[in-house]
Amino acid sequence: MQSTVDGFSYGLVTPVVAFLMACLGGALGLRCATRPLVVAGSWRPGWLALGSAAIGSGIWTMHFIAMMGFTIESTPIHYDRLMTFSSLAVAVVMVGIGIFIVGYRGATGTALFTGGTITGLGIASMHYLGMASMSLDGQLEYNTFTVAASVTIAMAAATAALWAAAQAKGFLWSVGASVVMGLAVTGMHYTGMAALEVHVHGTAAPSTGESAATLLAPMMLGPLALLVLAGIVVIFDPLMITGRPGPAPVEHKPGIPAHPRRRSSPTRPTRLRLRARGPVEHRARTPQKR
């Protein structure tokens, strides 16, 4: 029989907190990912990897905070530990691929479209793999059209967030990019949940796995600690917040001055030539002693 699904058991508490976590992960991750564009001489692979981990952790944390408010009538919900961990790994890896593409190719044209698409697919993959980790006395069914709409929302919003973050034009652009990323994650999540139908078997058979309170609360400590670490890095790097470009690195090569020479005025070379010729002409006019 079809059972009643409630995604707002705690009212607006879980949606709001989940959205804020998605925005936080997006803000920290996007600032780390665009750090090489803001500050010259940055180690690009390391910053991109930290940004990918922050965004992936924010996505995963957002999803399971929202799932704490998800209940199904007449049946308890348990979660498989291995698949839950796998959903976090999928989010980090797929978001990382998209971030690295944009980080090395730039947020324009094909690179932006490819990176945003992969990042959006990473968000969607994490969501549906996390849903598959649920164990209950029933069967989950999805509306194909609504699922496609949720994936499209994730890809479009992720592309827009990457583009806005890559502009590196200041703090407001960073806030806007993080809000768009938060909308991408939460919009995709609740659109995907709207596509869900649950058919309860009614056999009262005990489901395997662990409850949300037992499994998810301890598991969130790791991603939350990573977000705190990324936040500390951003706070102690003011250029990442303001978005002002750093000084260009000076390239030292043998025989090449570190600073470019100033161009002299048009009259200066003439004066130098006259001074150089003076002693020569004077020596030429001096009679030689015999």
TrEMBL record:
Q: Keyword Phosphoprotein: yes or no?
A: no
Q: Which InterPro entries match?
A: MHYT_dom
Where would you find the membrane-spanning parts of this chain?
12-34, 46-70, 82-104, 111-130, 142-164, 171-192, 212-236
For the region Disordered, give the residue spans. Answer: 247-290
> Where does the record place Basic residues bias?
259-276
Keyword Cell division attached: no
UniProt protein name: MHYT domain-containing protein
Q: Lineage in the entry?
A: Bacteria, Bacillati, Actinomycetota, Actinomycetes, Kitasatosporales
